[in-house]
Amino acid sequence: MCPFYMESRHLDALIQALWQRGYRVIGPRVRDGALVYDEVHTAQDLPVGWIDQQDAATYRLRKTDRPLFFGYVVGPYTWKKFLYPPEQVLWRARRTNGGFEVVHEEENDAPHYAFLGVRPCELQAIALQDRIFLQGSYVDPTYKARREGLFLVVVNCTRAGGTCFCVSMNTGPLARSGFDLSLTEVLREDDHFFLVTVGTERGMALLQEVPHRPASTEEIAAAEAAVERAALRMGRHLETRGLKELLYRNYEHPRWDEVAARCLSCANCTMVCPTCFCVTVEDATDLTGQYAERRRRWDSCLTLDFSYIHGHHVRASTKARYRQWLTHKLATWVDQFGTFGCVGCGRCITWCPVGIDITEEVRAIRESEKEASLAATN
Ligand code: SF4
Ligand code: SF4
């Protein structure tokens, strides 16, 4: 289907149409100096004019005079917060004569979300989590219930962040499928519009409620050129050729000691990652001993506690835990799920307090192999 032209001023009508259909619309907002995802009721709730500057351990928002709705790249929040909540009660129980009676079970009235402003790399992250939670041996009921009703409005990237490397991971900056609607924002001297691509029938039905028309060849070319510019300006690059084998060959590389000497085991990198999914389960009772509950909350393979398995820590050193995290993302994930576990969003680089950079760690190991092989031939 040919893409459509929608004037930027009609974005508000799109948001209203989603709310009228019963969706809870979640999109980007500025809060506490960062870009977060939360409820969006009008287009003016969006971060109009804001852009982000990102580098290793560096994140700043800056207001510009260009009234772009989606001029930023990504912030510390990810959509998994809504599909796979950071903390969740699995069940509550009350003591009865001789036993327990369950008084609360997993949610059965899942929120009906519409995500507005999903970046192409984030769409791929959702697809990866679908694989884990919906397509494996065990289906996660919370994720399933939230995912089934989800309406996805993707916004293609026309600006790359300083830590982005989606081109390397083949996950952006353009989304090709998996959405209901995809938008590309174009701002020119005399025109501010969205090029809209329809991905589903319900996407088309929604668009019918908003003024639009078929896009001209010139408008399509302008949108494509904007996305192409983002592709050419990636902040980072990760060479993925032979990556799994490279990491398996270098399990004892001295670089793991170097990175471990800097790593704080703070787990920031996993909390901001859109694909990480480690959780822990905790049981608690109240002071009377009459009530008990079981909670699930996000955890991280970077923490010492997470590596505790009956009697000892299976990854007692920071080196072992960082190596586990990176090799899972870029090697063992491939064996498990047939694809990398990283979509190149760059969050782990930006939000690591000491600026550890996944692309740099891989590059260092790859370079050392090249140097060793050169030395061997000379
Ligand atoms: S590993 Fe880092 S760059 Fe890759 S998806 Fe996770 S946060 Fe993004
Ligand atoms: S790599 Fe950075 S963000 Fe991740 S645990 Fe280590 S210090 Fe924290």
Describe the secondary structure blueprint for this structure:
Layout: E1 4-7, H1 11-20, E2 24-31, E3 34-39, E4 50-55, E5 58-63, H2 80-83, E6 87-96, E7 99-104, E8 113-118, H3 120-133, H4 141-148, E9 151-155, H5 166-169, E10 181-188, E11 191-198, H6 201-207, E12 213-214, H7 217-232, H8 243-249, H9 255-262, H10 268-271, E13 279-285, E14 291-298, E15 308-309, E16 312-313, H11 318-337, H12 347-350, H13 358-377
Parallel strand pairs: 2-8, 8-9, 9-10
Antiparallel strand pairs: 1-11, 1-12, 2-3, 4-5, 6-7, 6-14, 10-11, 13-14, 15-16
Helix pairs in contact: 8-11, 9-11
Bound molecules: iron/sulfur cluster (SF4) (2 copies).
Describe the structure.
The chain has 2 domains: about 5-85 and about 105-230, no CATH class; about 245-280 and about 300-375, no CATH class. Helix content is about 35%, strand content about 25%. The chain has helices at about 10-20, 80-85, 120-135, 140-150, 165-170, 200-205, 215-230, 245-250, 255-260, 270, 320-335, 345-350, 360-375, and strands spanning about 5, 25-30, 35-40, 50-55, 60-65, 85-95, 100-105, 115-120, 150-155, 180-190, 190-200, 215, 280-285, 290-300, 310, 310-315. By secondary structure, it is of the alpha+beta class. The chain has an 8-stranded mixed β-sheet with strand order 3-2-8-9-10-11-1-12, with helices on both faces. A 4-stranded antiparallel β-sheet has the order 7-6-14-13, with no helix packed on it. It has a two-stranded antiparallel ribbon with strand order 4-5. It has 13 helices and 16 strands. The mean pLDDT is about 95. It binds iron/sulfur cluster (SF4) (2 copies). One iron/sulfur cluster binds near residues 273, 345 and 346.
